[in-house]
Amino acid sequence: MKELEKLFARIMQRVNINLRELEFNVKPLIRNLIPLHQMSKFYAFYGVTPHHPLNFEFRQSSLAGSYFLGKCSTINSMLYKSDIRGDELKKKGDAFNYQGMEITVSENEGIDIGDSFLIKTLVHNFSHDPETLEKFFITNTLSTHYANIHGSPMDGSFLGPFSTVDLTTTNDCVIGTYSYVQAGEIGHLSVDPGTVWVRSPGAFNFLYRYPLDRLSGYIRFSAGEPVQGLFIDFVEERKEAFQQVFNVVNLELPISVPDTASVDRFAVIKAHTHISENVLVAQRAYLQNARLGKGSNAQENCYIINSKLEGYNVTAHGAKVIEADLGRNVFVGFNSFLCGRPNVRLSIGKDSVIMPHTIIDVKKPLDIPEGHLVWGLITSREELETNSISLDAMSQTTDSLVQGEMCFEGSGAAFVDAFRNRIHHILEANGAYYDGTRNRGHAQKNQNISFNTIQPYPDGDLAGLYPTISILP
Amino acid sequence: MFTVKDLMVPLSEYATVPKGSTLFEAVMALERAQEEFDHTKYRHRGILVLNKAQQVIGKIGQVDVLRALEPKDEDLEEIKELDKFSFSPKFVRNLYKQRRLQGAPLKELCITAAKVKVEACMQTFVEGEYIDQDATLDMAIQHLVLENLFTMLVTHKKEIVGVLRLSDVFGAVFHAMKEFETTL
User: Fold this and answer.
1) Which pLDDT score, from 0 to 100, does residue B42 have?
2) What does the DSSP assignment read for A422-471?
3) What percent of chain B has pLDDT over 70?
């Protein structure tokens, strides 16, 4: 235990050194957030498939949870119930397209986690930084509950609860609670809680900032306090269902799954759930009375409850869909919270894009028309008017647009195209378009995964830490 | 060669107000100073704020008065931050303009600003904004240019004795140039 405490202190110190310019101190925020003494009771696991070459190195680290498909090293770090999923890393010889240049990847990409503490964080996708194609590094970083590090190498940064850094290299930054950043590259920046920022330099810039007084009911985090608000309550209330899934070695699914679909054995599947062809349900997804139409996916940490998804729907990492009906090809972005109520349905028309980190929480039925872009906080029809626009109208924007708290500058067409292309890519990678021979994706490749567990020292000075482990094919 | 003492406005002739005054009282003090002292010599542009011990604790310039008229709502603070998120200066300017057009009329802003306490809008002096009264003109020029200042506080034995203004230094330089030109 002594060594684990030393490691914890060392990580906090390193993060603070990197964030000294921003005068940000992580210590009071996380000092009592994690029960260190319990780290020796958790186990870690890694998936084994014929499709993902094994290459793991764990040194002077504490691990809990995970998945680790693909190359990954964890040194002087703590992963607390995190999900590191490297099944989309670049491979040697791949061509990476950057601003019209084709850059060849010289070796298999690996996730390198060093001197970092990731708490219930999802790390996924490949790094999009053209300067470090072969290395997806996460160093001197502290990331808190249900944050997403998605294709974003980072150094010296702090991620607040339910925040997301997406396709953005991040150096010495503080990302506030429930903020979403997709900006290519940022440095020495403090992003306030509730900021949704999507920027493609030279093409477009989108910014929405939540009213913090209203956001705090959903999620808030301050020094000396635990993470609080509806989001964390919602997740905690369903924690037990996951504990059952993680405690059992061989688990029978309560539903039938088509041959072309994949339901991860670490997902929670409750009664009255229907899975169609080419559906992908990732680990730590929670489905209850959910109907997933053909080609839909439910990504990590997402919850779909009493809802119907027509088909080809993307429910991104951490998104929650409750008492809702989603038309075909609706995209629900990271950590969005879409909440109808019994007899108060939320309907979203086909081809609509719900921006990452959108909250729709209604007490009266609400219909979102097809082909709309939706963002921010919406609790009524009036707020929907302010916080949405048809994708066609958005595509007409050529200069700037200000609507409520949303600011947009640049080409609306480029913005809409970027989303459409990305949605298409996600569906393609997940195997939504599989026709029996072509377009195999995760839904088809991830059907048979073996999981091996590894465990830490049970007591003594090293309690909670793992011995140095190398795992190779 | 001029010294700072030759060019400065003595403190006794400068517009001053005590801490706790309103912006309206400060503007009135400026008007009085303008009327009371030599019109040809000084055109007063600033007001010094004094504490109870009659020490200078800050200065209000014309731009500070105008800045006090700007609405102080959260919206404008948020617009200021757009720069951090890489929005273009043009976008930010347009947004300011739009919010200004939607905001309160000037009359209302003037009435509100007049009641603001001077401490809320004064600038405080920092190291580098002081110069000794015996410093020479060339030292004063170097100081003003390097620090990018419009005024400096003039000291003598740690006491503030006056204000040196960019306009007075410029006047002296202009005078010197003319003199050198005609004697060549």
Assistant:
1) 62
2) HHHHHHHHTTTT--SSS---HHHHTSS-EEEEE----SSTTTTPPPPEEE
3) 95
- What tokens were used for B137? 């003109």
- Judged on CB neighbours under 10 Å (0-12, 13-18, 19+), A200 is middle
Q: Is A402 on the interface with B (CB under 8 A)?
A: yes
Question: Beta partners for A46?
Answer: A452
Inter-CA distances, B181 with A59, B169, B171, B174, B175, Å: 79, 18, 15, 11, 10
Using the Cβ of A185 and the Cβ atoms of chain B, whether some distance falls under 8 Å is answered with: no
Q: Is the pLDDT of residue B41 over 70?
A: no
The answer to whether residue A56 scores a pLDDT higher than 90 is yes
Per-residue pLDDT at B175: 82
Q: In a 10 Å sphere around its CB, with 0-12 CB exposed, 13-18 middle and 19+ buried, how is residue B124 labelled? A: exposed
- pTM of the entire structure? 0.86
Nearest by CB to B88, from A197, A209, A409: name it. Answer: A409
CATH number at A2-173+449-471: 2.160.10.10
Domains in chain B: boundaries:
4-66+117-183
Contact residues, chain A, for B87 at CB < 8 Å:
205, 207, 407, 409
For residues B46-68, give the mean pLDDT.
89
* Nearest Cα residue to A50 out of A471, A453, A446, A469: A446
Task: Convert the pLDDT of each residue in A308-324 to its tens digit.
Answer: 999 999 999 999 999 99
Q: Show residues of chain A in contact with B98, CB under 8 Å.
A: 402
**What is the separation of C-alpha A133 from the centre of its chain, rounded to a whole number of angstroms?**
21
ipTM (interface pTM): 0.90
Confidence tier at A248 by pLDDT (50, 70, 90): confident
Please tell me the distance from the alpha carbon of residue B56 to that of residue B149, in angstroms, as a whole number: 17
Closest Cβ opposite residue B82 in set A183, A201, A407: A407
- Digit-coded pLDDT (tens) for A336-367: 999 999 999 999 999 999 999 999 999 999 99
- Identify the closest residue of chain B to A181 by CA–CA distance: B85
Name the pairing type of β-strands A262-263 and A190-191: unpaired
Q: Is 80 exceeded by the pLDDT of residue B112?
A: yes
The DSSP result for A207-256, as a single string, is EEE--HHHHTTT-B--TTS--BSHHHHHHHHTHHHHHHHHH-SS---SS-
| Superfamily name and number for B4-66+117-183 | CBS-domain (3.10.580.10)
pLDDT level of residue B74 (50, 70, 90 thresholds)? low
> What is the third-level CATH fold of A238-402+413-445?
UDP N-Acetylglucosamine Acyltransferase; domain 1 (2.160.10)
**Where in chain B does DSSP place strands (E)?**
9-10, 16-18, 47-50, 56-60, 130-132, 151-156, 159-165
Among residues 35-64 of chain B, which lie with CB inside 8 Å of chain A? Answer: none
Task: Provide the H-helix boundaries in A128-238.
Answer: 212-215, 230-237
Domain positions in chain A? 2-173+449-471, 238-402+413-445
Whole-number pLDDT of residue B17: 93
DSSP letter, residue B64: H
